[in-house]
Hints:
Distance between the termini: 10 Å
Shape: globular
Order of helices and strands: EHEHEHEHEEHEHEHH
Bound molecules: D-xylitol-5-phosphate, zinc ion
Low-confidence stretches: none
Largest sheet: 8 strands, parallel, barrel
Number of strands: 8
Strand order of the largest sheet: 1-2-3-4-5-6-7-8
Number of helices: 8
Mean pLDDT: 97
Amino acid sequence: MSKIKIAASILAADFAYLKDQIHLAEKGGADWLHLDVMDGHFVPNISFGPFVVGAIREHTKLPLDTHLMIETPDRFLEDFRKAGADIITVHQEACIHLQRTVAHIKDLGAKAGVAINPATSTSLLQDILPDVDLILIMSVNPGFGGQTFIKGSERKLKEAKDMIARTGREIYLEVDGGIDTETARAVIKAGAEVLVAGTSVFRGGDIPKAIQALRTGIME
Length: 220
Ligand code: DX5
Ligand code: ZN
């Protein structure tokens, strides 16, 4: 189980104290920082862009796992990479020429991820698997933190896990939305290796303890 990674999603952090909150997540043993970029079009919410990613980069060595919930992400890939994003994930639903977008991310020297919404079939990932470094299964409809995990996401994780295994390639399988100690166990059983957690990490009052609790919950 030690290879399970926790990607702390700063969307649930207190942005007035972002640097401190990130350092607490580091102290608690977060493996990655998950950065949710929202444009008010692809999702009904607006968060932040490359400028904030760059500001975070100045204060952490943790890999920046950048989740682009934006339309036509191609326009901004270079900006996010320059700002310090290590992994750039785009949505299958937002990319007409997905293979081109993924190739562009890799040309920029970042790892490339593809995310799918809860109502998008895992079968749509098949033809992009040879090119990606990460698959992200959304277990809530993207746009907001603090939503309830959608049951059935475990089935999609299992399907994605099998598809990945058939490629023989190393591809991270990540899950995002409604992850707490209880759902963490279910998604790990289904094959998830990277758990994105926002509310359960940042909203309980003790960030390091919350990350440790998530990890202990996983180990049990
Ligand atoms: C939702 C975002 C998530 C969000 C998860 O659109 O992609 O990363 O921060 O938050 P929780 O862990 O609160 O469900
Ligand atoms: Zn996310």
